[in-house]
TrEMBL record:
GO MF entries: transferase activity
Any single Gene Ontology cellular-component annotation: plasma membrane
Segments traversing the membrane: 232-253, 265-286
Protein name as it appears in the record: Glycosyl transferase 2 family protein
Domain Glycosyltransferase 2-like: 5-170
Pfam families in UniProt: Glycos_transf_2
Keywords, comma-separated and alphabetical: Membrane, Transferase, Transmembrane, Transmembrane helix
SUPFAM superfamilies linked: Nucleotide-diphospho-sugar transferases (SSF53448)
The species this protein was found in: Loigolactobacillus coryniformis subsp. coryniformis CECT 5711
InterPro entries per record: Glyco_trans_2-like (IPR001173), Glycosyltransferase_2 (IPR050256), Nucleotide-diphossugar_trans (IPR029044)
Record PANTHER family: GLYCOSYLTRANSFERASE CSBB-RELATED, UNDECAPRENYL-PHOSPHATE 4-DEOXY-4-FORMAMIDO-L-ARABINOSE TRANSFERASE-RELATED
Length: 309
């Protein structure tokens, strides 16, 4: 008997959890009729929700012992929730999914078929229609990230993927504190199939991850996974030096050849502001990397679980 683990990060999803579980139960019945040797376990991760998400998970666990949950001591972020769920999953096949009943019924049987019958290692759902401005922003960041790395991240990437145990073990072998799952999944390689789906919005019409959460995750992804910005600092500094040198030469030539001195204080202030701004930008990028290194050396846990059932 092979087990398939469903990993579902949750944050303020009290309305979605019952709908998701009901939809998942129907799909699981269909899967078990097709593949009789497939068993299923659920791992919900409550990422410090402020609503009744934990109560819903406790009720599900009381009704079905194959439904498990992890409750964080506070909000650690989606990356920590993903890591915690993957860490607990025991299945031969592991699905990472958003708690959205609109996505699961359409994709999971196709994803499992692609792995079992077509022998893919990873199957990823790709969204064809953006739900809100936040996913659009995430896709834009992914495209920018691809400029700095040889490991390309497919965009737009959806909220669901199914992988084999071999892929999961490879992903979990990367121990960094500041995780960027999209980059990690692509970095480990393996044969991947993309399934397109259309999903206009989450079931209740509201995204559970806000604008600033997407910004934070994207910045952490750039700094934690890519080395391109370090080279960018050098080239920006070199370009600014050359530009400042050209301005200085123009001012001197204008004075010597045309006998027309430039407004000295204006030119000086412009150059100072230009160089000062570039220096602050470069210092901020370098400081971000130093902060990442500092957090890695502290060896803090990625999450703290208040309750595991």
């Amino acid at each position: 008997m092979a087990t398939m683990s469903l990993v579902i990060p949750c944050y303020n999803n009290e309305k979605m959890i019952p709908l998701f579980y009901a939809a998942a139960a129907e799909v699981v019945n269909t899967i078990q009729q097709t593949w009789e040797n497939i068993d299923v376990e659920y791992w919900f991760i409550d990422d410090g929700s402020c609503d009744r998400t934990l109560d819903q998970l406790q009720q599900l666990h009381a009704r079905a012992k194959f439904v498990h949950y992890i409750s964080f001591s506070r909000n650690f972020g989606q990356e920590a929730a993903i890591y915690a769920g993957l860490q607990q999953a025991t299945g031969k096949y592991v699905a990472l999914m958003a708690g959205d009943p609109q996505i699961l019924p359409n994709l999971l049987p196709q994803m499992l078929s692609a792995i079992i019958e077509e022998h893919y290692d990873i199957v990823v759902g790709t969204r064809q229609a953006a739900r809100t401005e936040v996913p659009n922003l995430r896709a834009w960041f992914i495209k920018k990230i691809n400029h700095f790395t040889k490991v390309k991240v497919n965009a737009p990437v959806g909220d669901c993927r199914l992988m084999t145990r071999q892929v999961l073990d490879a992903v979990m072998s990367l121990p960094e504190y500041n995780r960027f799952s999209l980059g990690i999944f692509n970095w480990v390689g393996f044969t991947t199939k993309y399934l397109a789906y259309q999903n206009d919005e989450d079931g209740d019409g509201q995204p559970t991850r806000g604008f600033w959460q997407v910004i934070s995750d994207s910045v952490n992804g750039i700094s934690g996974f890519l080395s391109g910005p370090l080279a960018l600092v050098f080239y920006v500094g070199l370009t600014s030096f050359i530009a400042a040198l050209i301005v200085l030469v123009v001012i001197v030539m204008r004075l010597l050849v045309l006998n027309d001195p430039a407004n000295g204080w204006l030119a000086l202030i412009s150059i100072i502001l230009l160089l000062g701004g570039i220096q602050l930008l470069c210092l901020g990028i370098v400081s971000k990397y130093i902060a990442e290194i500092y957090l890695e050396t502290k060896h803090w846990p990625i999450y703290i679980a208040k309750e595991i059932k």
